[in-house]
Amino acid sequence: MFRPTNLSNQKFLDAFLAQEDNQQLYQRVIASPDDTQKRNELNSRIQEFYAELQLIKYISSLIRFTAIELAVRNQKIGKVFQPTDEIERVIDSLVSDTGKSEWENKAKWGDVIADKRVLDAVQTLTEKEREILALLYLRNLKEAEAATLLGTSQQAVSKTKKRALLKLRKQLEGGENT
Predict the structure, then answer these.
(1) What percent of the chain is predicted at pLDDT more than 90?
(2) What is the mean pLDDT of residues 54-75?
(3) Which long-range contacts (CB under 8 A, 24 or more apart) does 117-125 make?
(4) What Cα–Cα distance (Å) separates residue 77 from each residue in 70, 73, 74, 81, 135?
(5) Pairwise pLDDT comparison (81 vs 164), residue with the higher score
(6) Which of 36, 64, 93, 164 is the most buried (most CB within 10 A)?
(7) Contacts (Cβ under 8 Å, ≥6 apart) of 104
(8) pLDDT of residue 106
(9) Whether pLDDT at 159 is above 90
């Protein structure tokens, strides 16, 4: 016969006995412990109840994880580009105001940056940093797309972009003070 040994087993037994017919059968087994037929029926009901709980737990987990996955997917799909760093907005505003279709495919910073200070600052970046910024800002690729083109990870592109933008910020802020 089932005997609760810990709190989770006690909760299980409480849930099982919450059904009146199970409680009545349990009381009959307690009243006549030598009746093997009633004891076997109780054990059978407990096993069925346990199997139902396992199925409910599995379905609940499946629903929960599917909901989380859908929420993440919807968040990725619905995410509109919003600069997360002030320097990204500064760079966007410093790029010349020519139409997007004109400068989107150009590979040279000098063709799209109107401010000589910004152009000089960009030229101090490493080749890799300039290449990543060109893909992201001149060709309007997403980090994942740039990573695919470069044969690297999105995280590496993101890290290089942040490092390059930080260098630009420091250089431009340093240039204003002199």
Answers:
(1) 14
(2) 76
(3) 117/172, 117/175, 118/91, 118/94, 118/168, 118/172, 121/167, 121/168, 121/171, 121/172, 121/175, 122/168, 124/167, 124/171, 125/164, 125/167, 125/168
(4) 10, 6, 5, 11, 21
(5) 164
(6) 164
(7) 138, 139, 140
(8) 40
(9) yes
